[in-house]
Amino acid sequence: MIGVIGLGFVGLTTALGFSEKGFSVIGYDTDVDKSQIIKNKEIPFFEPGLKQALSKHINKNFELSSTLKYLVDNSKILIVCVGTPTNEKGECDLNYLYSCLKDICSFHQEDKEQLILIKSTVPPSTCSRDVNKFLNQNSKFYNKSLFLGNNPEFLREGFAWEDFINPDRIVVGLENEIFKSLIKSIYEPFSCEIHFVTLNMAEFIKYSSNSLLATLISFSNELSMIADKIGNINIKEVFKILHDDKRWSGHPSNMSKYFFPGSGFGGYCLPKDIQALSTKAKTLSAPHELIESVIKVNQKVKVYSVEKIIKQTNSVKDKIAFLGLSFKPDSDDVRESPSKDIINLLIERGFKNITAYDPIANHNFKVTYPEINIKFSSTMSGCLTKANLIVINTAWSEFSKLKNQKVPIINLRNL
Q: Which of 143, 187, 289, 305 has its CA 20 to 30 A from that of 385?
């Protein structure tokens, strides 16, 4: 039996979605008026598809409870979908969540293994740090017969039913294997890969997803405001043409290749063009904060990469094997390559024993940056000889084969 606590947009969709897939579900909400509306087979908010699902499953697969105790007593998995609004300080208000958890602890039976699965959106590290502490303080059975997980939702308003029934991803933060098979069983009918990750990762994936969408919207609006200042630009037509880029549909490479962390972008086009647009916007007094931030982050990530490297060294005399000099694989272009800045920063910090190797860009790097005093190797194995530390900074496939090295590898491209 699945218990769903909180029957708002996410909770009611979740309860009816599992009912649709053939599971027995108990739902509970502290709002008596909302519960009465649902009992009357009405939806207390507008969301296509839910009313038909409610009429189909209420008093069959879906049962409404008037008490939380009944739900806790009769459920193996407790899915928490209570609100986590923003308070006056801009923080996530967890009062509803903690109130719910406290009640669950008071009703939990010692001899019954149960999983609290938090679907409410909470900031990264909330479960591993704060909720863990709270449950330890409020339940003597926590981590004995009462366990914690989280299961973020990726539902779009207006499409919530379709998104739940046919998900593109299922993410479960679970740090105890006891309930893994049970989670697999309740999500098996959804024909979608289940990603079992840490509690922190599950929360971070949810926030990253929403932050990406918000950033795309704001960046589009910033470009629109710059276009207005420039004049004689049909911004609607501009974006239609931008959407024609084959990379959105995966050709010649998928747009996801650009949405992946590394050590910054380089090459001839991106650095100079975004800098020129930022400068143009500034001369026109047009908003350009996001564009300016893109430039700043591209510099900061190189400094951050150097800090990661230094943390793994014992001395500035250590030999660093630096793999990759071109700004991207399958290219010998070293213009504005992140490797140039990272190597320079290392030299400034006193590291002089650096040997570099790139499958095809060694010569171009020497010629383009003659002032950078490092050694070059014509082979990867030669570069690695006597190295105290290996740094990968271009995603050449050759570097992905590195295994069983006796020294640390700093994988700046996350190969």
A: 305
